[in-house]
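re: ur question from earlier - yeah i can do the single chain one, its not a big deal. heres the input i used so u can compare w yours
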Amino acid sequence: MEITGHSVEQLLDPTGILEGNRYEFFLDLDVPEDDELFSEQGIQLRVLFSVIGEEKRIANYDFIEQVTNQILEFALDEDEEKMVVEYCAQHLV
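and the output i got, formated as tokens:
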């Protein structure tokens, strides 16, 4: 799995309940054909990213098939999760 692009938007909390900042990333992924996650429709990873002080982490994520917007029931492995956290931390708005 390789991240080939992204869009990002800072989510505002009008209530002030949430601590820190939240960002919504849509990561474009290049997934090899032999990977069970592969889809000819294309795959995106929607990431809710939390930043509280120096702590940067994934709050939630979903794999989404691009054409159908269907949520796919897959999980990131440890290395992929680390890669996504590093990528998002480098591309904050």
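The mean pLDDT is 92. not sure if urs matches, ping me
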